[in-house]
Design a protein that fits this description.
Helix content is 0%, strand content 54%. The protein is built from no helices and eleven strands.
Amino acid sequence: QVQLVESGGGLVQAGGSLRLSCAASGRTFSSYAMGWFRQAPGKEREFVAAISWSGGSTYYADSVKGRFTISRDNAKNTVYLQMNSLKPEDTAVYYCQVRVGVQDYWGQGTQVTVSS
């Protein structure tokens, strides 16, 4: 059974930083690309960042490029999202995601709230 557990969310002032973590279990995730998505109230879930299985390639939404950094530690089966220079529009529930075969798995999400 694949499980993804996010942590690290919270309330922060604009311009501040947070580091999200996603701990994966149930498989050896070092073979899979992983991603972060977010969903703000009343909006669709949107892509934030992704990282290849080795960590050698990373991808970002234009809205977070230059402010967010995705990384992974395969020895710990953990993916991170370092978020700097946070803006109120970054407020959302952040979800970790992995695709195994044709199946997408999601964590329960962690709330990030950025006050102005």
